[in-house]
Amino acid sequence: MKYKYMEKQVEGAKALAEKYPHMQTHQDIYKEHVEVLEKAKAFDEVIKASQKEKTYEQLGFTASRIASEYWRDKSND
Fold it and tell me: In terms of residue numbers, what domain contains 36?
């Protein structure tokens, strides 16, 4: 999946957040757009993996791995 529209939203939200650093609303919106984009990419990874994996057990393992990597990376930020 292409994320062109979502990436444009992130860019616009980032520009507003940088232009108005004192307004918490803009900061929150930027963070929300970034999080939605990250989740969409992670979801697509799960879908791609499901097309490759043959059993539900393998799919579950792959989904767990991707989710744990996402949350590990998120906690390191």
Answer: 4-76
